[in-house]
Amino acid sequence: MTARETEGVLVTIDGKEVRAPEGELLIKTAEDNGTYIPRFCWHPRLKEVGMCRMCLVDIETPGGSMMVTACTNPISDGMVVDTKNDRVKKAQEAILEYLLINHPLDCPVCDRGGECPLQDQTMSYGPGETRFVEEKRHFEKPIPISDLVLLDRERCILCARCTRFADEVPGDPLIEFKERGYGTQISIFPNQPFSSYFSGNTVQICPVGALTATPYRFRARPWDLKAVESTCPHCTAGDRISIEASQNQVLRFLGVDVDATNRGWLSDKCRFGFEYLNSEDRLTNPLARQEGGTYEEVSWGEATSIIAQRFGAIREAHGGDALAVLGGAHGTNEDAYALSVFARDVLGTKNIDCRMDDALGTRLLTGIDRRARISDVDTAGTIIVWGPDLKEEHPTLYLRVRHAVQELGANLIVIHPRATGLDDRADLKITYRPGSGSDLLTQLRGGDRDDVNALLEASPVVAFVGRTGYTEGPTMAEAVASWILELEDSRVLPLARRANVFGALDMGVAPDLEPGRIAATETGRDTRQILGGLASGDIRGLLLVGADPVRDVPDGSLATSGLSGAEFVVAIDMFHNDSTAHADVILPALGFSEKEGTVTNIEGRVQKVNRIAPGSGQSRSDWSIIADIATALGSDLGWTSEQEINDAMMARVPAYAEASWDALDWEERDGVVVPAPGADVPVYRPEMTTQPTVGAELVLHSARKLYDDGVMMRKGPSLHRLAPGGFAHLHPDDARRLGARTGSAVRLVTKRGEAELPVQVDPSLHRGVVYVPFNQPGVGPLGDDPVVRVTAVGEPD
Amino acid sequence: MGVLTELLKGLRATGSVLIETVTGKEMLTTRYPKEMREKPQRFHGRHVLNRYPDGMEKCIGCELCAGACPARCIYVRGKDNDPENPNSPGERFGFVYEINMLRCIFCGLCVEACPTEAITMTQLFEFSTTNRGDAIYTREELLMDTDGNVPHMFPDDPLADMKELLTADGWLKATAPAGNASYEGVQTWQGTPGPASWDPEPDQETRDS
Known about the structure:
The complex is a heterodimer. Chain A is of the alpha/beta class. Chain A is 27% helix and 21% strand. In chain A, helix 3 (86-99) packs across helix 4 and helix 17 (527-536) packs across helix 19. Chain A starts with a helix and ends with a strand. Chain B is elongated, with a radius of gyration of 23 Å. Classes of the chains: A alpha/beta, B alpha+beta.
């Protein structure tokens, strides 16, 4: 860097001298120093384009003063800028008058009305009256450009924010300008909807109401919304959001620009996936199963006393280890801490797990050596993604990686059994068969692949490691992480899905961890063993906390047999689901926008979750339900609020010593990364192991899509219809051999399940791999064993 | 002595008014409710939701009335019009419209805020209820029917004067229809709620000639 870039150059803006790095855009320098220059097309996270001309300012040049657009002009030493003189004012008025020639002024029926940059800037900088009384340009009023986004071309001011976003950020250039001059309009391509996973962001950045979202359409006006900042509950990236509600109903999520996590962007699942909160199917009262299998509403007191009596009896007769706790990854850290303490100290069991048998080892997830931060991708030389398709499971991390590769020049290696969203930006894509990952890893470790060696020379290396699919065991990821740590100057970010799974593990909702990432002296059973134990009768009582093992555990039939074998099951949940159907007592829980607390994201960043709406009916937060059951069991945990649990947690868990509510609310709005410096947290180094190669002719690859058939998706009408449904993806060679083609049906039989599914021929697959998306509507579980037999059903027509 | 004289002086004034009132010579009070006083043209009474002459609802559910309301007594929710059978012209209509008349201060800001002249006020002010729930007027009770009749919550109420519901406080048209240049700045007065029964306002050329 030159001195001018580091120390900055001197610029005079409206007579005020400021210093800023040379090359910074004038509009940003001005804004950072308190001078707002009006704009429509410029967005700090997009490339400048100079489309709207609203940011015209006067700069002094040797040839006299000159009007330039502040959004495309980098500052240089000695620049003198006037943003408020008469010439600038006249230009601003003219631009606004020009923009309003065809803008329909249907503000009263426009979702943007009241928070519209065009309205605001017309009020602040506009001429105040119109001279244009002719007929305006007309287009067909809103046309759907995807299932979630509507386009009103009359309102569009052609700022190109949406087209630039779609092209630059998620790499889905499905929306573009067409025609020219007066006829210019935004359009999608024929028969190709704007079905990006990130389409909702264009609605948020549209400076007018040209793009509106169907889930929010006409639901409220900005002045009757109240907002609270919170953390997105859908993926583990910990995206910062603003939750907006009206009349006690959550109506929309907006992304908040935080550099550490999501930079203002959200996936559509995050943005529109809240609808379940307002669902009419929410549980409202405690329910107890009657003889005959029906549920009756009972009071909280009755419910807790039934639970205490039955759990107490089991504990008395068979010991605490005959009880188990599953779930807790969807709540706050406070809920998780309460659950962990309750299981260990009150129930007296070590059988507690928040992972649904689909994640990695707890030690790897919480305490891996050289754990990467999300921001490390910005300085990475090479990024390796060996794990789930980031676009499907960690959408905002996908945007971060994409940005780092596309704009910051990092190398990218993607290793996955089929096409992923990052393939088009990958310097190297390796497709492999699940079940032969060890062979590939041996090659890579041995330095046999020159292409990989060449890319790895650019350091530091940042690797995202996780399970590519559920038929590949967690030890494979441990081996990959171990290889990464063998490389010099490398960092690893282990991936896991389900909202607050990292926080729950930190709080000890794990069979082998105590609160604070400390290895437990005695290891309990994990999810798989708990379900096995329930089926065999070793475990008799089960507490489900926001968990649906029947749907979420890859081996769904194991979960079903376990739950039906259980003697007594209690479920704390928001909805009836396939697992609560086995419960004896169901307790209604609060959703995440209905409680206060902290959550921990994938890199260990602790952030605040805030309350904006009351829960449905008599629902309560997990911790208070648990505290009541504890009291009924004879152990008063002594908590009366989340804040008290947080205090107890900070005192007990040294890693969380600095993540107090006060700090998160007022000082560290973007969160605090744990463990706190100085906290004594054991570091875990994964071991290099070799997995046996699966020799079957066809192997199953089972991985999630962004939209699936989970209970929260089912209760949100906007997104559930976007779930792609069940398909068996076959490599063309395999399809030919089996006599199947796209549209014909095949029968899949695995050790743990079977399904008949339509075929999709997918050339991106490795030969010999059958890909079936996990948990799609109408598809039963196929288990996690990779061996699969496939036969064609009927003749392809 | 002086005090007594002053007292009598004062009582004389009282006594003369008393006599005038009793004999009916100069009556200042009216025998309400037997006699009704003429209300001023701009009297702010109960609200009504209007329709266009073709029967479409004027309300588009934009919530500007609710936003302008200083008493926060209006609750509106918009909804998509069914394109086959729309309630109002355009994309959106007022799906929920409620006014809590107990909170309303009859200031008329909702009428001013309304961009489509959907809400106006009538001269009816006698609508006391016997419970609080009845004081919340819903869309059905506020919206006039397609013939221009305004529903009354208690049509049998001896005090109900339906004529008052058909007299609007005058309101101004602030925008030129359909952007027609010759109507620029034209302001008109509409004295009744409901489907327009008045002649179209003269345009600029006609007025200037």
